[in-house]
Structure formats: C-alpha cells, structure tokens
Amino acid sequence: MHSMVEIQKLLMPDVLSVMEKRYQILRSIYFMEPVGRRTLAQTIGLSERILRSEVEFFKKQHLIDIQNSGMKVSEQGLTVLKELESMMNEISGINEMERKLKEVLNLQEVIIVPGNSDEAPWVTAALGRVCARRMKEMLIGDNIIAVSGGSTMAAVADMLTPDFAGRKNLLFVPARGGIGEDVEIQANTICSKMAEKTGGKHRALYVPDQVSPEVYQSFTKEPFIKEVLSLIEQANIVLHGIGDAMAMALRRNTRPEVIEKIEAAHAVGEAFGNYFNEDGQVVHKVPIAGLQPEDLPHVEHILAVAGGASKAKAIKAYMKSAIKSSVLITDEGAAKEILYS
C-alpha cells in the first residue's frame, strides 16, 4: 500500500516541490537566525530575487519576524516547522537513509540532519540543536554529562537554553583534559558554557590533553584532579565528536614522528585519543587524562555527533567498535558518503 506521501508525489509533485523548498528556506532561517536576506541567499544557493518573493510569502503568513538584526522564525513558524519535520524527512528520503545507516553501522538509533556541514555552517548548528533536543529527552533526576571538545560540541552548547534542565540537576564535566588546543573548543570551555546556559554546574579538568603515563600517574594523585576524574567516570551521559585522523593530529600539535606513524597506519578517524583505520582497528593511542573508551560500556547514554562528507570514513570506522546503543547524529553529506560511495 502506498503511503500518503507517495500518493501526493504522484498526484501533486509540483505542490510537494514548492513545500519542500519553502520548508528548507524556513528551516535555514531558524538555524541561522537572525540572518539577512543576502547571507541566506548565498548560503542556500538561491538568487536574491527568488528569495525575496519567498520571504514576502513567509511574512504574510506570519511565519517569520523581520528585525533590524535580520530574519527570525516566529512562534507560528516554529510550530509549522515541527509539524512538518516528519513528513519532509519522508519526502526527502532521510527516513529511509536513517534506516539503512542503522543497518550498515549496526546501531540502535541514527538521526540525520539535512545538508552537508562541510558546505554550510548552519548544518553544524542543526546538528547541535538536534543533539540538544535528544539529550534533553535523556535527562532524569541527577545527571553527570561528560563532554568532549571540538567545534561540533561547541555548536551543541550554543543551542542550550535556560529551560533545558527543568527540575533536573545537571553537572557538566570535560570528557578529557584539553590544555594545548584552541580555548574556544576545549572541553573545559564548552562545559562552562553549557552550565551557564542551562543553569547547571560544571567542573574543569586543568591538565594537558596528552600526557605520558608517568605524568598521568602523578596528576591523578592530586586531590582536585582525582575528584574530577571520579565524576567523569560516573557520567550517565556522554557527548562526543568523531574527528578526522590527520586534522586531529595537527590540531593537537602532534610530533612529526607520530604523524608519520598515523599516516603509515592509514588512520582515518579519532575519538577519545584513539586513532583508528578503516577497519576500526586502533593504530595509535594517545595517553589522555579523562574518559577512556573502555569506560563507555558503563555509560547509560552515548551521543556521537559528527557531520560532513569528509567525516564519512572516520564515522564508519569508529562505529565498527563503538557501543551499539550509541546514538549517532550526523548529516546527509556524511550519510550519503557512507551509504553510496
């Protein structure tokens, strides 16, 4: 039996095409707001003339508000977006991609965001918003949330709001140390921002991201660090990204001889200090202070967030050894690369 969407595709393809275009424009405004018309036109690849007529339509329907700072989706527009989401995912084929990706990666849940974050910055914001929404569904009572560093996790922090926690108690802790990389995307910074935006609390771990075993042992004897590491081990929710192997190695100012080792071993991805090849085998392990991969089976909820076609190999490789109850939040760019390349 044909679904209603399939019937509509046969009888009213033009209507569905217009609906899909307007949904994507309204959705882009939502993730980029406040946004000007020229910036939006350049981002989504429409001429300003065509976009001008669509903006006028949204304005007449009270779906957007236009302010000096730019366009924003109105409350009515947000309601329309939420009600259309499931239908539009079916029309665009995202629902089917999610089903296929779950099978390919052997995961219980996959959420795919439209677009490719390699090409459009607003898609990274969409990944952050979806992660924030999914995490909110997991909160029960007291929560310790361990968060890794990276630009995607920073996007998640940007999407948190004061009403996020409700009556839940939130404690954000860094999944690992982070001294030595860009301050804005360090786990400590991201945890601080998440706590500030939700009214929760956070603890910092002021140790280098990469340490020798001897130094690691000396660090863990410090009472303050020992306490924070204990909290990290008690986390019931973990949020983490999946990095491209070489990009992560360079970001961490890795020694040239180690980079040569990683290249020679054909590493494609990195997570929790482990570099792995396309078969999911760990080819290099960085001693890190904080959460270790062997700690993950004891974590109730794991959200892995990574997007962009360039991350496809890293995502696929990491998921070969990942906890199967992990929730993968990714985008169309990565999903299509994994499924069809």
Commentary on this structure:
The protein has 341 residues and is of the alpha/beta class. The protein has two domains: 88 residues, Arc Repressor Mutant, subunit A (Orthogonal Bundle), CATH 1.10.10; 248 residues, Rossmann fold, CATH 3.40.50. The protein is built from 15 helices and 13 strands. The strands form three sheets. It has a seven-stranded parallel β-sheet, with helices on both faces. A four-stranded antiparallel β-sheet has the order 8-9-10-11, with helices on both faces. A two-stranded antiparallel sheet has the order 1-2. Helix 8 runs parallel beside helix 9.
Structural class: alpha/beta
Largest sheet: 7 strands, parallel
Q: Total domains, how many?
A: 2
Label the overall shape.
globular
Span of the ends, CA to CA: 31 Å
Number of helices: 15
**What is the CATH architecture annotation of the largest domain?**
3-Layer(aba) Sandwich
CATH class term of the largest domain: Alpha Beta
Tally of strands: 13
Proportion of strand residues: 15-25%
Strand arrangement, largest sheet?
3-13-12-7-4-5-6
Proportion of residues in helical segments: 40-55%
Mean pLDDT over the residues:
89
Secondary-structure element series = HHHHEEHHEHEHEHEHHEEHHEEEEHEH
Tags for this entry?
4-stranded antiparallel sheet; alpha/beta; single chain; Sugar-binding transcriptional regulator; 341 residues; Arc Repressor Mutant, subunit A; Rossmann fold; SorC_transcr_regulators; 7-stranded parallel sheet
